[in-house]
Design brief:
- By secondary structure, the protein is mostly helical.
- It has two domains: about 80 residues, no CATH class; about 50 residues.
- Helix content is about 80%, strand content about 5%.
- The chain has six helices and two strands.
- It has a two-stranded parallel sheet.
- Helix 1 packs antiparallel against helix 2, helix 3 packs across helix 4 and helix 5 runs antiparallel to helix 6.
- The protein is globular, with a radius of gyration of 21 Å.
């Protein structure tokens, strides 16, 4: 009788497991898209979203996790962070330059002083963060 009750519960556990895996993959994909947007939009952080994507993929799909770690655009962000290497000098220069160009253009186009001040505070905070992250030497 015990074996019968275990086998009846097994499909429910398996369905729940598949559902959770699917939700982790969906969440990972959302974080991956946000991280990809962060590569070209300097105000949006890239690495935290890619790390969240990796964590979700690790829980939801080993195949997706391996794909992300080996991806030519995203993999290095995650591997360098996990290994404590940091960001390359080229990446820092590009990120900080793009950040300040974008912030200055936005501040010029927006004629509200409180928004301009907020933009510059964000730019300063992101710049300080990027400078403090270790510089990865290849």
């Amino acid at each position: 009788m015990k074996l019968l009750s275990l086998s009846m519960n097994q499909p429910a556990v398996s369905r729940k497991h598949r559902l959770m895996n699917g939700l982790f993959v969906i969440a990972g994909t959302i974080f991956l898209v946000l991280g990809a947007i962060g590569i070209v939009l300097p105000v949006l952080p890239t690495t935290p979203f890619l790390l969240l994507a990796a964590a979700c993929y690790l829980r939801g799909s080993e195949r997706m996790h391996q794909w992300l770690l080996n991806n030519r655009w995203f993999g290095s962000y995650i591997r360098n962070y996990h290994e404590g290497k940091g960001i390359s000098a080229k990446g820092k220069i590009f990120s900080i330059s793009t950040l300040w160009i974008t912030i200055c253009i936005s501040a010029f186009l927006i004629h509200m002083a409180h928004v301009q001040i907020l933009l510059f505070i964000i730019a300063i905070a992101v710049t300080v963060h990027l400078v403090r992250v270790p510089t990865f030497r290849e």
